[in-house]
Write a structure and sequence with these properties.
Shape: globular
Helix content: 25-40%
Length: 278
């Protein structure tokens, strides 16, 4: 773009012989009208504005106390922790729980059918060998117990008819004796003393007993029974006595003190299982 020159003319005065153009004003106006002056001015203004904005000091954020709260764990982490804790609890339970002992397992019983046969008919000779059909009494025998064969002499002298024992501890046993010629039961004290006369071990147990108790009971048929319990220092004895068919039957359950504490429920069961039949 061509420069526009503006000449301003003045009247001559006395002091000046010829008119002089004011060149400085011409140059200044030309500079104002030239496009580059607008660009320069705009650029300068923009640069000044930009500089002012970036150099302004930032305002510090207000002070806040750091929070100590932890963010909650994510769901997968919670699931993993729950699974781990559950597995640990199960493992602890398995390790701390003792396995069940054989003594805690249910006891099985077999029914013994006793005939109370005389010594002459011992073993079925001279009579019916089917014990169940000719049985006069029954009682339960714990599974695993062994039968001790009673000799004819023993049967004839003290009336022992049958006996079973624990093979792990032979002094833990049950047996039955009978005496003929009894139509009814005598008083409880008399019966116990008569039984002790033919049983030396029973005499010792009674002599050293901490306590002796006795009671009467009747079964579903009205049959009368005497029940004795002898608590001795060395052992325990349960005795059940009744009369039937002109005979006196006495069922004994004996156990040393340690076995009594361990097997009391079982021993009481076989004591209560005795009854006359037929």
């Amino acid at each position: 773009m061509d420069k526009i020159h503006i000449f301003m003319m003045t009247k001559p005065t006395n002091n000046s012989l010829s008119p002089k153009p004011k060149i400085s004003q011409t140059i200044h106006m030309a500079s104002i009208l030239h496009p580059s002056s607008f660009l320069s001015s705009s650029s300068s203004s923009s640069s000044s504005s930009t500089t002012t904005t970036t150099t302004k000091p930032p305002v510090p954020p207000p002070f806040s106390r750091p929070q100590s709260t932890l963010s909650p764990p994510s769901k997968p982490l919670l699931t993993k922790l729950t699974t781990t804790l559950t597995s640990t609890a199960l493992a602890t339970a398995i390790l701390t729980t003792s396995p069940p002992s054989l003594a805690d397992s249910p006891t099985t019983y077999n029914i013994y059918y006793g005939t109370a046969a005389s010594a002459a008919n011992y073993g079925g000779y001279g009579g019916n060998s089917d014990k169940k059909a000719s049985a006069e009494y029954i009682y339960d025998v714990p599974g695993g117990w062994k039968e001790r064969l009673v000799s004819k002499v023993e049967k004839g002298t003290n009336g022992t008819d049958s006996e079973f024992y624990n093979p792990k501890k032979k002094s833990e046993k049950e047996y039955l004796t009978y005496l003929a010629g009894f139509r009814q039961l005598a008083p409880k004290d008399v019966i116990l003393n008569n039984l002790a006369l033919s049983d030396v071990n029973l005499q010792d147990l009674i002599a050293n007993a901490d306590g002796v108790t006795s009671e009467e009971r009747k079964d579903e048929n009205g049959q009368l029974y005497y029940d004795y319990e002898i608590d001795g220092v060395s052992g325990h004895s349960l005795i059940s006595v009744t009369c039937a068919k002109n005979k006196l039957y006495a069922h004994f359950v004996n156990a040393p003190a340690p076995e009594w504490k361990k097997d009391e429920d079982m021993l009481r069961h076989i004591h209560q299982s005795f009854k006359t039949v037929g």
